[in-house]
Design brief:
The complex is a heterodimer of chains A (89) and B (102). Chain A is mainly alpha-helical and 89 residues long. In chain A, 83% of the residues lie in helices and 0% in strands. Chain A has one domain. In chain A, helix 2 packs antiparallel against helix 3. The chains are: A mainly alpha (89), B mainly alpha (102).
Chain lengths: 89, 102
């Protein structure tokens, strides 16, 4: 029974990611785009964990951990460039 | 019997997490300002990921995989407010500089 709930959750989160991509495309300022990409990154992390448990490959959860790390570093890097105008300090 | 109960509780947690993600995306699209959008998205993302991962941990039981999921959850709970704080600081400082130049 829970397999259907997991499949529905994956489809729902992917559709919500496309809806959030509208804000990343249209956003008036740069911070809007950063917020939208951060939201999409969290959603994709959850989708990776759900798919890893759905196909019963527990070691694929580590992929989600690495994806969360990459998303965090991307957000911090772009926000730091927005704040200081340079990246070398 | 206990498996049925476990699946029902996990499904309830996952559906609640999907609701929080939906509310976050609605706030991201509909709110008028950057800070209002962050107010909607950051909390709802943290809460939705927490609920969905809690449901998956309940479904898996006490195994090594649930320890991994708990690690991902703790990482998201540490880094998501940090990133939101830094984005808010960057947007606030740049908008202050723009208004001072005018």
């Amino acid at each position: 029974m829970i397999e259907y709930v997991i499949i529905g959750c994956v489809i729902f989160l992917v559709l919500l990611s496309f809806v959030g991509l509208y804000r990343a495309y249209k956003g008036p300022t740069a911070a809007d785009r950063i917020v939208a990409i951060n939201v999409i990154s969290t959603k994709i992390t959850v989708v990776i964990v759900l798919i890893a448990l759905w196909i019963k490959q527990g070691s694929y959860v580590n992929v989600a951990l690495i994806y969360a790390m990459i998303g965090f570093i991307t957000t911090i890097g772009v926000a730091k460039y927005l704040l200081k105008g340079r990246l070398d300090t | 019997m206990i498996d049925i109960m476990k699946e029902i509780i996990a499904s309830l947690f996952i559906v609640c997490g999907m609701f929080f993600f939906f509310v976050g995306v609605v706030g991201l699209i509909r709110m008028p300002d950057v800070f209002c959008r962050m107010h909607a998205t950051t909390k709802c993302d943290t809460m939705g990921a927490g609920l969905i991962f809690t449901g998956l941990i309940v479904w898996q039981g006490a195994t090594f995989v649930s320890l991994n999921i708990l690690l991902v959850l703790v990482f998201i709970w540490l880094t998501n407010p940090t990133a939101a704080h830094y984005i808010a600081k960057a947007e606030y400082m740049t908008s202050i500089l723009l208004t001072m130049e005018e």
